């Protein structure tokens, strides 16, 4: 009996765009996956022995990096934040586009050079690295959401967050001042599983073909 | 003009029980707070200059500890996990009861003594501290949710998570094996704000009176 193949997908934003691509790669979760009242954490697939787990984006990377899931889909923001050595992101799925950006209160930009900043973010590693390159030491206040509140309440002078339309920033009196990383969703796989389980290599090929087919179309 | 008074409440479970107590303390968020389509992150209060922010439980503690909110409500699990020196939790609100527990696959309990374990949890500090007391070194895999998946997928042999009815554990073939911490919601305040802003001291008094009134009733 072979080990079940676990595919990890993130809750939220990316999933709606990912499901049609997954279907073309033969990964179709059963009806319970779409039942909002279900308490299940893992789901069977149609015509496949694969199982799907739906977890938070950061946890997708954790499950795959540790080999508890063989493959998954997650934003490049999460891939870059963790930089897990066992996590390999071979296919850019060209969906879930947004950007990781720095924002600050509108009109604050001409405050002159600084050597130290307090920044609110869910991405401490990417934030520190970005400011280090400019010779600025960033003290990161880790928040899990509602970053946009931080400057107005004096918790931080800047935030680093995902930006899509920029509307939430504007609603909170903030302005995007630089882009750290353009973000899109990636197929990620566990490196050891890719070497030892041919189902992983097949899945990578299937997603590659779908993406290049879409680009050609 | 005095600094606006910011009161932080957590999304989810605790909030339904907290709102009636807050109302008795004179903290009543305006109608927009209850509008599920609102994108607002901060809300005015009726008959008061207080503003309410609704953020994730861990972030309630972060805002209050840094003085970006003067007061808030959060579970004792979060207070204990962070152990922020500037965060003071003077009133046990006697709501939001649950417990932080260790769970493992049912029937695994007689595996004998161990010196090292891998544990999946949202609470790395409390988890390490709990196992250290037993002479066990716990390597914590930080997950943000769906902890119950971890043992079945080989990510960890134990989990440390909040348990209420225990039904989710049972559904995932897990058994609660020890309680680390009984949990209830607390009124928390920023220590510096408590010393300098009399509105904070009044709020503490109001919540204390409500809780002792409820106990006497």
The structure class of chain A reads alpha/beta
Oligomer: homodimer
Rg value of chain A: 19 Å
Helix content of chain A: 25-40%
CATH superfamily of the largest domain in chain A: Periplasmic binding protein-like II
Provide the domain count of chain A.
Answer: 2
Q: Mind describing the biggest β-sheet of chain A?
A: 6 strands, mixed
Strand content of chain A: 25-35%
- Count of individual beta strands of chain A: 11
In terms of topology, how is this protein built?
The structure is a homodimer of 217-residue chains.
Chain A: E1 6-10, H1 13-24, E2 42-45, E3 48-55, H2 57-65, E4 71-75, H3 76-82, E5 87-92, E6 98-105, E7 116-121, H4 124-132, E8 137-142, H5 149-152, E9 158-163, H6 167-171, E10 174-183, E11 185-190, H7 191-196, H8 198-216
């Amino acid at each position: 009996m072979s080990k079940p193949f676990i595919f990890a997908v993130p809750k939220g934003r990316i999933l709606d765009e990912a499901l049609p691509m997954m279907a073309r790669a033969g990964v179709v979760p059963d009806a319970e996956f779409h039942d909002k009242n279900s308490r299940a954490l893992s789901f069977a697939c149609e015509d496949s022995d694969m199982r799907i787990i739906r977890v938070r984006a950061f946890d997708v990377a954790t499950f795959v990096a540790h080999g508890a899931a063989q493959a998954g889909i997650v934003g490049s923001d999460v891939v870059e934040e963790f930089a897990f050595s066992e996590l390999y992101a071979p296919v850019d799925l060209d969906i879930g586009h947004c950007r990781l950006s720095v924002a600050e209160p509108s009109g604050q930009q001409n405050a002159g050079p600084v050597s130290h900043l307090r920044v609110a973010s869910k991405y401490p590693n990417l934030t520190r690295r970005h400011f280090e390159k400019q010779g600025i030491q960033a003290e990161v206040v880790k928040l899990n959401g509602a970053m946009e509140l931080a400057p107005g309440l004096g918790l931080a002078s800047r935030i680093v967050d995902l930006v899509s339309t920029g509307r939430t920033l504007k609603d909170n009196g903030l302005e995007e001042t630089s882009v750290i990383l353009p973000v899109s969703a990636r197929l990620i796989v566990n490196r050891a599983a890719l070497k030892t389980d041919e189902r992983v290599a097949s899945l990578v090929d299937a997603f590659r073909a779908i993406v290049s087919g879409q680009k050609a179309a």
